[in-house]
Amino acid sequence: MSQSRYVESLEILMKVALFIPCYVDQFYPEVGMATASVLEHFGVRAEFPTAQTCCGQPMANSGCMDEAKPLAKKFVDVFDGFDYIVAPSGSCVSMVRNHYDHLCDPEDQRAATVRRRTLELSEFLTQVLNVGAVTGRFAHKVGLHQSCHGLRELRLGPSSEVMSPRANYVQNLLADFDGIQFSVLSRPDECCGFGGTFAVAEEAVSCMMGDDRVNDHVNAGTEVMTAGDMSCLMHLDGIIRRRKIPMRVMHFAEIMAEAIEAKTPGL
Amino acid sequence: MSHPALARDFIANRERTQWHDKALWFVREKRDRMASSVPEWELLRETASAIKQHTLSLLPDYLEQFESNAAKLGVVVHWAADAHEHNEIVLGILQQRNVRRLVKSKSMLTEECHLNPYLEQHGIEVVDTDLGERIVQLRKETPSHIVLPAIHIKKEEVGECFHEHLGTKKGASDPKYLAEAARHHLRERFCRADAGLTGVNFAIAETGGIVICTNEGNADLGVSLPKLHIACMGFEKLIPRAADLGVFLRLLARSATGQPITTYSSHFHGPPAGCELHIVIVDNGRTEIFRNPEFRRSLNCIRCGACMNTCPVYRRSGGHSYEATVPGPIGSILTPIQTPEKHSSLPFACTLCGSCTDVCPVKIDLHHQLFAMREVLDGKRLIGASKKLSMKLVSGVLSRTWLYNLLGTAARLSLRWLPRFLIYNPLNAWGRQRELPLAPKKTFRQQFAERQQKDDKR
After folding, report:
1. Whether residue B80 is found in the same domain as residue B194
2. Which of B173, B206, B214, B353 is deepest in the core (most CB within 10 A)?
């Protein structure tokens, strides 16, 4: 995909930074590339500030706020001055938006601005760019794994516990692709069991949770499992590959990039 | 033992763990159906939370109001600072009246205070009359769930237990038959009891009355036959007005078991003529929680157990893996506040998925409190030296972009080139049941920079 014809106009309107989580940078570069491509398709040519590393979530989730603080400060320094900071991860975005108030100097206006402007990809596409139905082709049965932090911290979809209706951002973005079908799961939004250091510290529970999620998708006939967070998918894919199950995992940005490219090559 | 070790033992019996998980998920689904049938469900949660927060903000006033109104109804109100005082007060009341046999309905507070063993040491026969609690008591265990105390026990095991203690047929596991046997057994205990002890679900400041919710009616029977009723409650059971009760009764049973309401919601406004009603109000660490703004909201809890039913970790590790009177998400907050050394692994027995927060009928921000509790434990140096050291190291690396790039490359190279047996070594907990991600040749930042260069040339 090359840049769209809207690029120049939108580039003037907003300065967007890509926030690519550290483990995505190292292990899933294709997810970052797909994120950039999808944004470009909708007319946003994002920059990648190269000084970025990690939002500090592993430390904060371990209770180590003193160790998380320098990373929060670094994050604010790196992303200060952008209109939007967009990441293909609900979990890392939630860390910035919901926990940086505790990690940064409350007087620091820059931190408050950076927090407010940090958005998850489906959130940015839906809320800022007002992307509705997307044209594309993806003829597979897709199983949507609702990553918890996107779902219950950022409210990117309806959680089964809460009785008020809510739009499902990722599903809506994928829903109009030609040939796509969605799996109906018996437990639509149960946690996969990754949980950061939980995956290792509580290995037995973590893997059983992952197994149960994978089995639910197998029973529902999922061909491609997708999610808003590669961390969930890294854990689930680890189980899928160990058990040699014929199922692929793809970040929803990858599905979008592939679907859009399939329908309108080289747009 | 810590939670991970006990959870691993529980999961070792995979079939049983799956059964446990499914049994609780079934309750969670019933709850969903019930909650969705109430159009104003979310408003009810909001209202209940606001009422509890309001009550806590004026707690001393409401406690005094309750005491004086209860006293006007002829109730004797006792105050206990801790578990020991609570137990002494109850024993004192029983001994003064020569009580030898006590029947109890479910009270997590008396579990918290370890009342049963205390009374038994002093020669008093204590019979738990809630069916699940009786099963647990006969097996000399503790409840594994606050609403479903015997959820970890299969019906075949109940059959064995009843065969041994109640003389039912060997090998019998028909729930109806076993429940009938328990009914006869308990009826006899009810009839010969000298006193009845209950918990309290709601205490109403405005009236001085208390409300007790059960499905088996055992609280009513237990306190109606004897002339002495002792009701024990933590001070957080207070609500201001009788009019507030409807909000909580609508939420409680739906959240707990997926019923529209408990079979019995019994109101006690003072003792009947010729009888005595004593209410023991217990602190036992609650003031400490009350004083802490970060965790105060946990005193909203109405002990419905919905956070346990929904918790994916609880369902797969069992209540006993928490080694706490109250297990699951809410227990992982309440317990480490009091005993951080012994229970330091509990706030980490959580993926921070947030399902508990969304299911909670009184809107306790459970997973945020669990997150905050981890920081408290770090402050007390209780997160483990190796974890702390690794977090320091990782933070040092991630603070320096060049070092992050360097070590990232090293990690990917070793994943690509090291032989499998070295990577999947016995110390690699990730790799026991899972593959590691495949390491790509180039990072995102390399690929993105290359693409930009190409674009610039164009």
Report:
1. yes
2. B353
Q: Are strands A224-227 and A141-145 parallel, antiparallel or unpaired?
A: parallel
Query: A141-263 — its CATH code?
Result: 3.40.50
Average pLDDT over residues B323-346: 97
Rounded average pLDDT over A115-138: 96
Mean pLDDT of B420-449: 96
Tokens at A33, concatenated: 């590339």
> Which residues does residue A17 pair with via DSSP β-bridges, in sequence order?
A47, A85
For residue B192, tell me if it sits in a domain: yes
**Measured between CB atoms, does A59 come within 8 Å of chain B?**
yes
ipTM of the complex: 0.96
- Note whether A85 contacts B: Cβ–Cβ < 8 A: no
Cα–Cα–Cα angle for B161, B194, B83, nearest 5°?
Answer: 75
Q: For residue A11, what pLDDT is reported? A: 53
d(CA B96, CA B277) in angstroms, rounded, equals 14
Query: B377: how many CB neighbours lie within 10 A of its CB?
Result: 23
Read off the pLDDT of each residue in B182-188 and give the average, rounded to a whole number. 96
Q: Is B294 on the interface with A (CB under 8 A)?
A: no
What CATH number belongs to A7-128? 3.40.50
Give, in degrees to the nearest 5, the angle at Cα B427 between B422 and B432.
85
The answer on pLDDT for A266 being more than 80 is no
Q: Looking at the partner chain, which of A159, A197, A239 has a beta carbon nearest the beta carbon of B434?
A: A239
Residue A264 has pLDDT above 90, yes or no: no
Contacts of A17 in chain B (CB under 8 A): none
**Residues in chain A closer than 8 A to B20 (CB atoms):** none
- Report yes or no on B20 lying in a domain: no
Q: Count of H helices and E strands in chain B? A: 22, 10
The helix (H) or strand (E) run that includes residue B398 is helix B385-398
B248 lies in which domain range? 38-284
* Interchain proximity A26–B408, CB inside 8 Å: yes
Residue-wise pLDDT tens digits, B383-402: 999 999 999 999 999 999 99
Mean pLDDT of chain A: 94
Q: Is residue B385 part of a domain?
A: no
Mean per-residue pLDDT over chain B, rounded: 97
Do B230 and B323 share a domain, yes or no?
Answer: no
Quick one: average pLDDT of B197-212? 98
Q: For A29, which residue in chain B has the nearest alpha carbon?
A: B444
- Residue B435, pLDDT > 50, answer yes
A160 Cβ contact list (under 8 Å, min separation 6): A188, A189, B32
Single pTM value for the model: 0.96
Using left for φ > 0, alpha for ψ between -120 and 50, and beta otherwise, residue B61 falls in alpha
pLDDT, one tens digit per residue, over B93-126 is 999 999 999 999 999 999 999 999 999 999 999 9
Q: Exposure of A133 by Cβ count < 10 A (0-12 exposed, 13-18 middle, 19+ buried)?
A: exposed
Amino acid identity, residue B160? E
Nearest residue to A173 (alpha-carbon basis) of A256, A233, A254, A84: A256
Q: In what order do the strands lie in the sheet with B125-128?
A: B76-80, B276-282, B228-234, B195-198, B101-104, B125-128
- Domain segments of chain A as ranges: 7-128, 141-263
Q: Coil, strand or helix: which one is A150?
A: helix
